[in-house]
Amino acid sequence: MTKSTLPLLIAISLLLKVAEAQDYHLKVLRSRISNEAGQHFVCAAPYTIQDCEKQIVLLQTTLHRYRAEDLGEWTWVLVHSEDWKPILERAHMDPNSPAFSILERRQTFFEDILLVPRPNRQKELASKWNIGFDQFLDLAVTHELGHALCNDADERRADQFGKLLRETRVPTCKNVAHPSPCSSVR
Length: 186
Description:
Layout: H1 5-22, H2 24-32, E1 39-43, H3 49-65, E2 74-79, H4 81-90, E3 99-102, E4 107-111, H5 119-129, H6 136-150, H7 155-166, E5 182-184
Parallel strand pairs: 1-2, 2-4
Antiparallel strand pairs: 3-4, 3-5
């Protein structure tokens, strides 16, 4: 991640907020899909309310399994696969990374491929990551929680933290570095 990509990612984040404020469905959806911990769940257009709600429930279930509520105020954003790769390519990030976080803005973005089967995209990701596709959501969530809970952009530490979470151990944050503004799964 270079400093030149930070403005683009912040612009994407701000565009989502503007779209959300201008689009009644997203605005209503965001106010309805929040939890007691102050976490917000947003689907970037063009989601229908029904599709967004179904996918958010799946995401919330996985996040809850790994105690994401411990983060407190946080925003989780789902983005359609069709939009995902162009966004990451413009930001000079790996388009085969299904998630990334902007720690300073307390936001994590997920490609909807983690929740909705799309055979061609699944093949692309499976060939890069060499894991079963049924493991992708847990991997992405725990990895991003490693970044978020430790406020640490280091990829190896996020991987280790995520692995411990998946093994149902109670990881702790050690040697927390100053975070860079953005991080992604590997």
